[in-house]
Amino acid sequence: MGKGLSLWFAVSSILLLTAASISISSNIWLALLLGVLCILNIGWGFILKASLRRKAEAKTHQSS
Fold first, then answer.
1. Residue 62: predicted pLDDT
2. What local confidence, expressed as pLDDT, does residue 24 receive?
3. What is the DSSP string of 27-50?
4. Checking CA distances to 26, which of 2, 11, 51, 52 falls within 20 to 30 Å?
5. Are the CB atoms for 12 and 30 separated by under 8 Å?
6. What is the pLDDT of residue 64?
7. CA-CA distance, 38 to 40, in Å (whole number)?
8. 16 CB neighbour count, 10 Å cutoff
9. Number of alpha helices (DSSP H) and beta strands (DSSP E) in the chain
């Protein structure tokens, strides 16, 4: 995964968790929704990283 994409997932996760923590005092359902979205965002980052790594490994095996 490139540095820009890694930075995007890190910053977006931090922003989602920050918004969730701020919304805890006003609306618990919004906080829960933002927490779930953050978990999904982190999971999507791991899935994307694994698929990009598999593609890179397959490409190096084909060129060898």
1. 86
2. 95
3. -HHHHHHHHHHHHHHHHHHHHHHH
4. 11
5. no
6. 65
7. 5
8. 20
9. 2, 0
pLDDT in tens, 9-64: 999 999 999 999 999 999 999 999 999 999 999 999 999 999 999 999 998 888 76
**What is the CB-side half-sphere exposure of residue 36 using CA atoms within 13 A?**
6
Nearest-angstrom CA–CA distance, 26 and 7: 29
Measured CA to CA, the distance from residue 22 to residue 26 in angstroms comes to 8
Residue 12's pLDDT is 96
> Domain residue spans in the chain?
3-61
Structure pTM?
0.83
User: Which residues lie below 8 Å from residue 5, measured CB to CB, with a gap of 6+?
Assistant: 48
